Amino acid sequence: MTSSTIASALDSAARDVFDDLVAWRHHLHSHPELSNREHHTAEFIVERLRDAGIDEIRSGIAGTGVVAILRGGESEGEGDKRLAALRADIDALPVKETSGVDFASTVVDNDYPGGPFPVAHACGHDCHTATVLAAAHVLASVRDRLPGDVMFIFQPAEEGAPVGESGGAQAMVDDNAFADHTPTMVFGMHVVPLPIGMVGVHVGNQYAASCMIKISVEGKQVHGSTPWMGIDPYPVAAEIISGSAQIYRQVPANDAITVSFGHVDDVGRFNIIGQTVTLWGTIRCLDGADMTAVQDKLRRLAENTAAAYGASATVEYLQDVPPVVNTPEWVNRIRPVIDDVIGKERVVDVPGALGYDDVSVFVRDFGGAYFTYGVQDAQVSAKGLTPTPGGRGLASNHSPDFYADDDALLDYLRIFVHVAYAHLAESS
Ligand SMILES: [Zn+2]
Ligand SMILES: [Zn+2]
């Protein structure tokens, strides 16, 4: 079998499964589930994997995770066999969808901690999931000719498990998802507002290191009319938020970091100065080496600000996620494959971003790379990224109007299957 013959077999199988891919995507999109609650999604995934005749399917990993293995017919002995892993995250977000598509979500999760929440696939994980499912079908159709095995990773809780629960990529590793079968490469691409069919590549840190911040400021509850008889935690909370905006001046200016608070919890009332105010936020560091320093400085700020007011502050950092690191070696192996599949002109260099993605755990542990893939009506010109005139506009991930073009997903699928095959064929 020549490489051009297998390439055309992959492409023709991709075209054959494409209508199913779109139908699966629409189904997942209109049935979104929040992090660690992806029960229907996981069942749907298992059914589609069974339809593809995948050899080994394990579900219930780290909650709702699914890992499947397709055995290649031309695999050599166990020793040096390669295992190419394709990864999709499967969870949705607490966002009220306004994309306007006819398969838009109207789902509300009434039981989720902190809810009820409207739920939508506002990060495009429906595209990731449907496409990796389609990749399983495509690769299964040429299984006899695969010189190695392929793993399909369906990861829950990429957006972060509820506080107090574990979940996500690290939880899958901890749950021994890869103990018996260790991938020799993990590959994925996040759908983003780049022009349809464009792949964004960044050598180095594609996505930032991240952690969740929880700061509990403890005062002394008292009637609102007599603040001197208690300890008011509010000015402490306010000064911590203000002071956190200065932390960027305490790390090297070339290093991108952000400290943001998005949620404040209290138990007061208009005429009661409450006992505790809790601040929730996130730290992002494009260079993971800055994370400890930023955490230390924020802790120092919080504890000393509280002390200055006679209050106390307890600082916790939760849900640590390492940066997504695309090494030059892995990019040099994978990028030429993508160049061949969709044309060099559609593969562009992009800057690293302060978003996070816990695929970083897999890429760090097993090697591979994670790129971005354009699914929106956009164009790149001297003015940068702009909406295509007459198109649907630019809508960022997590926004209520985020959308992804269905037709963009055919090349997205082709890239997945070709990258997996190329990795296996490298060794043969
Ligand atoms: Zn997201
Ligand atoms: Zn995402």
TrEMBL record:
Signal peptide: none annotated. Keywords: Hydrolase. The keyword Hydrolase applies. The keyword Hydrolase applies. GO terms for molecular function: hydrolase activity. InterPro entries: Amidohydrolase (IPR017439), Bact_exopeptidase_dim_dom (IPR036264), Peptidase_M20 (IPR002933), Peptidase_M20_dimer (IPR011650). Residues 211-308 form the Peptidase M20 dimerisation domain. PANTHER family: METALLOPEPTIDASE, PUTATIVE (AFU_ORTHOLOGUE AFUA_6G09600)-RELATED (PTHR11014:SF63), PEPTIDASE M20 FAMILY MEMBER (PTHR11014). This is Hydrolase.
